[in-house]
Amino acid sequence: MTESKSPRRRNLLKGAAVAAGAMSAPMVSMAQTTSLRFQSTWPAKDIFHEYANDFAKKVNDMAGGRLKIEVLPSGAVVPAFQLLEAVNKGTLDGGHGVVAYHYGKNSALALWGSGPGFGMDANTVLAWHNYGGGKALLEEIYKSLNMEVVSYLYGPMPTQPLGWFKKPVAKVEDMKGLKFRTVGLAVDMFTEMGTAVNPLPGGEIVPALDRGLIDAAEFNNASSDRVLGFPDVVKNCMLQSFHQSGEQFEVLFNKGKYTGLSQELRSIIDYAVQAASADMSWKAVQRNSQDYADMKKAGIKFYKTPDAVLRAQLAAWDKTVEKKAGENPLFKKVLDSQRVFAERALQWQNDYGVDFKMAYAHYFGKKKS
Question: Which N-terminal residues, if any, form the signal peptide (predicted)?
């Protein structure tokens, strides 16, 4: 009987050895890679496009080969201001831009960035968006426009300069009649101040300045402004402004593509947005401060925007939003929500916050002789 069972025993041992070998061999993933084609609204050389790639890399790394986002620069598939429609239609699977670029479809969209935001900085606007009702309002606006997209807002931007001018701005009257580039509701605010506004996309601004098609322009920050070539054509930059003091980035997904992803991959996207938001804000401090210092060394003149101009912005903004709120119920709904959140959040923030300028002056102010 022992001899009759030995072939069977040998087969069992052979099968066990094969199984053990398979277990010890490297595991080969059978999961299929989902590839998504994104486009940013920024030129490839801009730090903003770098931020878009940073976000994509975080998703790609965490997805472990199951999801891959490829980011193309502005204009690769569609012009910057057509991103929303392209993502909605599925021409693109997603995109990276700002909500203000969709301002022409509903004026309320510009409230995510344009204007003083009742005193909220960009991080506080993001707090309102994520925890104070802004996210639901943005979804309501997109639904009213029949835009089948999923939107994530992230990345609090530093306060944007008033812009680059051929001559420094000394008084409110200097803004009147200027051919000036801006976007979003800032268009209406500056128009109210008597400025002739042209809402050019980012890649077209410096060429227009160079050819004299516009007299002055704002874009965003020291790093972007420098790499886009503003210092090459204009030598005066006015710092501080309320026109876009609380803006952030938007990552868009085609809704069908997004909902077709597994819950695990959607969670990866959720957390990649949060990680990218923090990383972007830290990188901005490093890069913007260095580029600001380098431009000063190169002879670019920076001036503080006069308080009279800032107060004129606030007055013009109040007239602008009063008009828009009367024309657009969704605009009023967003504005009212921001007002309630800002009054409470900024009471806490202003009361608890210390004056960091005092500490800076203590350590780095000019030494008394």
Answer: 1-31
Check whether 181 is labelled as a binding-site residue: yes
Number of domain units in the chain: 1
- Tens of pLDDT, residue by residue over 282-323, are 999 999 999 999 999 999 999 999 999 999 999 999 999 999
Q: For residue 347, tell me if it sits in a domain.
A: no
pLDDT in tens, 329-346: 999 999 999 999 999 999
Torsion angles phi and psi, residue 139, rounded to 5: -65, -35
Whole-structure pTM value: 0.88
Print the domain residue range for 38: 34-157+246-288
Tell me if 244 is assigned to a ligand binding site.
Answer: yes
Q: Please tell me whether 242 is known to bind a ligand.
A: no
User: Strands across the sheet with 179-181, in order?
Assistant: 196-197, 179-181, 216-217, 163-165, 236-239, 301-304
Residue 145 lies in a domain: yes
User: Which CATH number covers residue 115?
Assistant: 3.40.190.170
The response to whether 219 counts as a known ligand-binding position is yes
